[in-house]
Amino acid sequence: MSKAFDFATVTAPDLPPPAVKFGGYPKFNFVGGHNDPDSLPVADLTEAVTAVMKREARSLAMYNSTGPQGYLPLRQFLVKKLKADAGIACTADDVLITSGSLQGMDLVNSLLVGPGDTVIVEEDNYGGTFTKLARIKGKCVGVPLDRDGMRMDALAATLADLKSKGIKPKYIYTIPTVHNPTGTVMPVERRREMIRLAEAYGVPIFEDDCYSDLVFSGERPPAIYALSDWPGVIHIGSFSKSIAPALRIGFVVAPWDAMSRILALKGDAGTPAIEQMALAEFCEKNFDTHVGKLRTALKAKADAMVAALEEHFGTAAEFERPTGGIFIWVKLPEPVDTTKLFQVAAKHGIALNPGPEWSIADGRNKRQMRLCFAYPSKDVIRNGVAALAEVCRTEFGIPERIANVKR
């Protein structure tokens, strides 16, 4: 006789809905932070893993053999990389290796945010940011964006309004370089103004820089962390987008006053060591060459998606041509609701991210969708966008079958 037990009777309160069983990826997969499989440096990673295992495998007998902040050679590589790429002057003691940038986000939230606390975010933003803050009962106040990222006039007004209500935000969260989902890159002067406002109001800045290696030109503005000696900025980054998402290696850069407290919260006995060792070995020899090739491949895929959108949607699809990253933020005309489009498209093997999942803008983004172009081939991109246009035409009457106007 089979026995049953209902775990719903004993689970903690306020859990997210149960997960559904994974049924595989659809034919046209335009969601997720996946990367270009043809650009994965398999041979060089294999060589790096083999080298470090031969040289350092005995150290796996210890937790955190080079300290609780992570594998020292990897932190030393990051010190050099961050100085060269982002202008950040730091030491290995300012760097913590994490299990992806998402763990870094969890640690910063654990450090700063409690139930009922307020944080300031871009009103269009990474969906995981909203989910994580909702899980810990944080309150998000959104600031609108334009083509240069978070608007500083709106941030100033938001800070002043909150202060008038006796509310001090726990941080200002921003993705300044290749923003997710809009793809914007915040100019230097706007970054300086954010620092000025944050310092004036005594509110920390939480800078998420995990897409910054993927600016197609290879030229990015200095990180916010680099632009001031004010110690109120925490910076997170990742190797997920530059090397491989499944490695799950990210990092936090913070002044010791914050870092010492974050370390006390990292209760996982250390981020997996083999991945850290292999990355350090790989990056020291190959990082710049590999990322240069990856940027070229991603730009070609971005161009393919832009061309497909222009061909099959014409002026019915509004978007900015990506200057980096792995996704494009598209606005469709009335009467499209991308939450409904998501459901209908899924029946045709098309996956997309509906705008409301990436926004707290009170439903104003129901016509937006995020399409990721990094993983599918250029042929899949072209065929998938054509299929998506046909779904939109059938369900919503757009785009009309008229001559397309090129951008």
Description:
This protein has helices spanning 42-56, 72-86, 100-112, 127-135, 152-164, 188-201, 256-265, 273-313, 338-346, 378-396; strands at 28-29, 95-98, 118-122, 139-143, 145-146, 149-150, 172-174, 205-208, 233-238, 250-253, 327-331, 350-351, 353-354, 368-372. The model is unreliable at 402-407 (pLDDT under 50). The strands form 5 sheets. It has a 5-stranded mixed sheet, sandwiched between helices. A 3-stranded antiparallel sheet has the order 11-14-13. The protein contains 10 helices and 14 strands. With 407 residues, the protein is of the alpha/beta class. The protein folds into 2 domains: 25-40 and 291-396, Aspartate Aminotransferase, domain 1 (Alpha-Beta Complex), CATH 3.90.1150; 42-286, Aspartate Aminotransferase, domain 2 (3-Layer(aba) Sandwich). The longest helix has 41 residues, at 273-313. Helix 1 (42-56) runs antiparallel to helix 8, helix 3 (100-112) crosses helix 4 (127-135) and helix 8 (273-313) crosses helix 10.
Dominant shape: globular
Residue runs with pLDDT of under 50 for 5 or more positions: 402-407
**Number of helical segments?**
10
User: Mind telling me which CATH architecture of the largest domain this is?
Assistant: 3-Layer(aba) Sandwich
Assess the beta-strand content as a share of residues. 5-15%
CATH topology of the largest domain: Aspartate Aminotransferase, domain 2
Distance between the amino and carboxyl termini: 67 Å
Order of adjacent strands in the largest pleated sheet: 2-10-9-8-7
Tell me the name of the CATH class of the largest domain. Answer: Alpha Beta
Round the Cα radius of gyration to an integer and report it: 22 Å
Mean pLDDT: 94
Order of helices and strands: EHHEHEHEEEHEHEEEHHEHEEEH
